[in-house]
Amino acid sequence: MEIALDAARAAAARGEVPVGAVVTDASGRVLAVAGNEVEARRDPSAHAEMLALREAARVTGDKLLPEATLTVTLEPCAMCAQAIAFFRVKRVVFGAYDPKGGAVEHGPRLFGQPTCHHAPEVVGGVRESEAGALLRDFFAALRS
Amino acid sequence: MEIALDAARAAAARGEVPVGAVVTDASGRVLAVAGNEVEARRDPSAHAEMLALREAARVTGDKLLPEATLTVTLEPCAMCAQAIAFFRVKRVVFGAYDPKGGAVEHGPRLFGQPTCHHAPEVVGGVRESEAGALLRDFFAALRS
């Protein structure tokens, strides 16, 4: 999570919403790290999770990541949660809960849907206060 | 929809699940066309809709597509439906209904979720039988 938080801080420094993600393999080796790049790419789908998952698949040469853990500073949205299921990610660890946009523990609770074909293990709230503070500080600065 | 069906047929010819998508602007001009590229890119998130939306944003130079129509041969999944909301697409026209993986008229019905911040107009079932036949033929050939 420290690596994901660093990626989130780096995203904030670039003017991006501070969310960071890291994909690790079964031994804990880092396969990919990404921060949000929505502004840099002018692409609303360029969430940290999407970029990290695609990069991890590229690095491993395998389009599925059944032994991988995705660690992300914010509860994934429906787009990222469904991508996590498509990539067959084994475990998702996230930081702050997102009652407005999250789709794992909130809203559509995607992994619990009968139509969801793959549900990873999920651990939420890891270093939640740090991950949440990054986002609160970022949006407070935007409004000030 | 004819353009989307052509993209789906081209995808099938490349060994991809035959789904095609096209993004048009307010005047009906084609901004982007894509077929599934999951196998070619070895990327389970490379759905036709995601590729077409990103390309349309690139072509217009605007990261939002508030006047655009996305026409796709299959009911979008949760990943693509959430991306459609993020790109602020005005209208979604789809072909075949997808009770197993669709997230517009099935499963999480994403655009109806209280947490969904943008719900496009939706027209489903357009040339449904042709779009569905493409998919059925593709999977029947795989099994034979």
Care to describe what's here?
The first copy, chain A, is of the alpha/beta class. Chain A has a single domain, classed as Cytidine Deaminase, domain 2. Helices cover 38% and strands 18% of the residues of chain A. Chain A has five helices and five strands; from the N terminus they run H-E-E-H-H-E-H-E-E-H. Chain A has helices at residues 2-13, 38-41, 48-60, 78-86, 128-143, and strands at 20-24, 30-35, 69-74, 91-96, 121-123. In chain A, strands 2-1-3-4-5 form a five-stranded mixed β-sheet. In chain A, helix 1 runs parallel beside helix 5. The longest helix of chain A is centred in the C-terminal third of the chain and has 16 residues, at 128-143. The model of chain A has no long low-confidence stretch (mean pLDDT 96). The interface between A and B is large, with 37 and 37 residues. Chains A, B: Keywords: Hydrolase, Metal-binding, tRNA processing, Zinc. Chains A, B: It comes from Falsiroseomonas algicola. Chains A, B: Homodimer. Chains A, B: Its cofactor is Zn(2+). Chains A, B: It is an enzyme of class 3 (hydrolase).
The rounded Rg of chain A comes to: 14 Å
What structural category arises from helix and sheet content of chain A?
alpha/beta
Main β-sheet, spatial strand arrangement of chain A = 2-1-3-4-5
How confident is the prediction overall: mean pLDDT of chain A?
Answer: 96
What is CATH's topology name of chain A?
Answer: Cytidine Deaminase, domain 2
CATH class descriptor name of chain A: Alpha Beta
Quote the distance from N terminus to C terminus of chain A. 29 Å
> Which CATH-level-2 architecture of chain A?
3-Layer(aba) Sandwich
Q: Stretches of chain A where pLDDT falls below 50 for ≥5 residues?
A: none
Oligomer: homodimer
- What's the number of domains of chain A? 1
Which percent bin holds the helix content of chain A? Answer: 25-40%
Largest sheet of chain A: 5 strands, mixed
Number of H/I helices of chain A:
5
Order of helices and strands of chain A: HEEHHEHEEH
Spatial shape of chain A? globular
Number of strands of chain A: 5
User: Largest interface, per-chain counts?
Assistant: A-B, 37 and 37 residues
Domain CMP/dCMP-type deaminase (chains A, B): 1-105
EC number (chains A, B): 3.5.4.33
Protein name (chains A, B): tRNA-specific adenosine deaminase
Cofactor (chains A, B): Zn(2+)
